[in-house]
Design brief:
By secondary structure, the chain is of the alpha/beta class. Helices cover 39% and strands 21% of the residues. The chain contains 19 helices and 21 strands. Helix 2 crosses helix 4 and helix 15 packs across helix 16.
Length: 482
């Protein structure tokens, strides 16, 4: 590592785990070290499914304690859409609701009665997902908690507030609320007004790289850090940070951010707001430096995670993947974007039932179910990449896979086969790297997104997968689902 490289702490919270990473950035060096990882386990209480946000905050503090002195800055990213409500004194009004909670069932129809789905898409560019913040707020209307609330903070903004005492709403995550106009990159006052949503609940917008305050004296004391330590707004939606860390050259690439979800699409300069795009369920979320993340949400490795939980844990995952590789390809596939797989519980049985209903062979063993999941994910990746190119008029030459799925060589190879394009896998900790790089350029020489990606290409281990066997069998499998 080059002399004088300064450490930056990236707090990166995923839907199943949180981590604090320390990154050091030099002109030709980029190193990332995990200092603390902790479980993110939701809790079911009588009123529904909730996040243990206090446990997450404790994990963040412990991670900062382990990071050690000398930090130049801290940045926080997390999953999207969920939020905490604060009262007039700034105190949290209950644990944040989990996006998989059932309170939004049937809410979309109520929203569309006031703002038809086509108008909503034309105004906000966001795909339909039952858990978008807009639907959550509509579901919460009339509750005592919302009536008492004076501030709404998205999850990374809530944790940043606890660290600094200052409130803000970071733009890339705000764009997942379905209350942002992707053309103006500001609030959609028309949509909010028609739905009776009070935008004054939201703190002022911040952009990646903006200052977000300093660690409070109480935080310095609890973590043992010597102040002052700045906190910097990053791409606080973890996908925004992950896409910023895609090690691509030029524009002709697609990306798939893999983990609990697969987010597959293109990076564009402007949103695609056509009716055809809405019908294909593509979203226009905001990214770094004026970019638009044009993508489709796919259920992702959640399907496999839930099966592993049902089978007793991930200890034998490596052996299971080896067995899955021996199962005949594309014997059975399911729609990996189907909302029927959104809720937790009984995933192996639900996948088997979906195959039975569609008249396909029913997978029985863990290896067969795993192969069904991975084939289905690769098929969904193929469809998203193909549809995105057509809808945006942007051809691609390569698919970049970043995030936890890069560890799954079988999934990466199947995605290359399905897309008929080379796949470059890595980096695994893309969200944390994007988080660190935004902090580094905010506190050092100002660089552009292309420069960040060149540094990633030079410094991060990447694996290339070439497509095999042609795409005709994948087209046939897609026809089965259609």
């Amino acid at each position: 590592m080059s002399a004088g490289a300064r450490p930056y702490a990236a707090v990166d919270l995923g839907a199943s785990s949180g981590r604090v990473m320390v990154g050091r950035v030099g002109p030709d060096s980029l190193e990332l070290t995990e200092v603390h990882r902790f479980v993110n386990q939701p809790v079911r209480v009588p009123e529904g499914l909730r996040w243990d946000v206090l446990g997450l905050y404790a994990g963040v503090l412990e991670g900062l304690r382990r990071a050690g002195d000398g930090l130049a800055s801290v940045g926080v990213d997390s999953w999207a859409v969920d939020y905490g409500l604060l009262d007039a004194d700034g105190a949290l009004l209950g644990n944040p609701v989990h996006y998989r909670d059932r309170r939004t069932e049937g809410v979309a129809q109520k929203v569309w009665a006031s703002v038809p789905a086509g108008e909503l898409y034309a105004a906000t560019g966001l795909q339909y997902a039952p858990f978008n913040t807009l639907y959550q707020l509509t579901a919460a209307r009339g509750t005592a908690q919302l009536a008492q609330a004076r501030r709404l903070l998205l999850i990374p903004d809530l944790l940043t507030y606890w660290l600094t005492g200052e409130q803000g709403t970071e733009l890339t995550n705000a764009s997942t609320t379905q209350l942002i106009d992707p053309r103006t990159r500001d609030w959609s006052h028309g949509v909010a007004g028609r739905l009776g949503i009070d935008l004054s609940l939201f703190a002022p917008l911040r952009r990646p790289g903006d200052p977000a305050g300093m660690l409070r004296p109480e935080v310095l004391e609890e973590t043992g850090l010597a102040g002052p330590v700045a906190v910097t707004a990053v791409g606080s939606h973890d996908t925004a940070s992950a896409v910023a860390a895609v090690p691509a050259g030029g524009e002709r690439f697609a990306y798939i951010c893999t983990g609990t979800w697969s987010l597959a699409g293109l990076e564009l300069d402007a949103p695609v707001l056509t009716e055809e795009s809405r019908a294909a369920n593509f979203t226009n979320e905001l990214g770094l430096d004026g970019t638009v993340r044009y993508l489709r949400n796919i259920m992702g490795l959640w399907l496999l995670q839930e099966c592993l939980r049902a089978w007793g844990g991930p200890e034998a995952l490596g052996a299971l993947l080896l067995e899955a590789a021996k199962v005949p390809a594309l014997r059975s596939v399911v729609d990996a974007g189907d909302a029927a797989f959104l809720a937790p519980g009984r995933m192996p049985e639900r996948i088997a039932e979906a195959c039975r209903v569609s008249g396909q062979p029913v997978p029985g063993s863990p290896a067969e179910i795993t192969r069904c999941i991975l084939d289905s994910l690769a098929l969904a990746h193929r469809k998203a990449v193909t549809d995105a190119q057509r809808l945006a008029g942007r051809p691609v030459d390569v698919v970049h896979i970043v995030g936890g799925g890069t560890r799954n060589a079988l999934l990466c190879q199947l995605t290359a086969d399905a897309c008929g394009l080379p796949v470059v896998a890595g980096p695994t900790e893309a969200a944390a790297l994007g988080n660190v790089l935004v902090q580094a350029r905010a506190h050092g020489p100002r660089g552009d997104l292309a420069g960040m990606r060149r540094l990633l290409t030079r410094t991060q281990p990447l694996t290339r997968y070439e497509p095999r066997g042609g795409t005709r069998r994948w087209e046939a499998a897609q026809a089965r689902l259609a």
